């Protein structure tokens, strides 16, 4: 099964230090079997939006969802109060690492879990991955 998986980043190497919805960019990879390929870098156009919006504002979740149309999985270092809203749109994966490269390895190792959550029609849960304990 091919999946489009987005990683929130400010520099293309590391995860951003805030909630995934506050990332400047999303690097979208196509995962197919044991391979992945960067297919697109999407700018988070809402990142420069109204900074007065608080974390958990439904408009922030809607903005993140609109930037990530077509994506199956959203991966970040931190999720905020909008996590329950995002779970309806994406499989949300929280990774305990700083770099996209180590997160990509962790996603590959846990693809069965991710696909299982994607296939759920209700009661979808987020997934927490710790690449340092999955070795």
Q: State the distance separating the first and last CA atoms.
A: 24 Å
Poorly predicted sequence stretches spanning 5 or more consecutive residues:
none
Query: What oligomeric state do the depicted chains represent?
Result: single chain
User: What is the count of β-strands?
Assistant: 6
Number of domains: 1
CATH homology superfamily name: Dinitrogenase iron-molybdenum cofactor biosynthesis domain
Assigned CATH class: Alpha Beta
Taken from the alpha-carbon principal axes, the silhouette is globular
CATH architectural label: 2-Layer Sandwich
Helical residues, percent: 10-25%
Examine the coordinates and then state which fold CATH places here, giving the name of the CATH topology: Nucleotidyltransferase, domain 5
Secondary structure category: alpha/beta
Percent of sequence in beta strands: 25-35%
Rg from Cα: 14 Å
In order across it, which strands form the biggest sheet? 3-2-1-4-5-6
Task: Give the helix tally.
Answer: 4
Mind describing the biggest β-sheet?
Answer: 6 strands, mixed
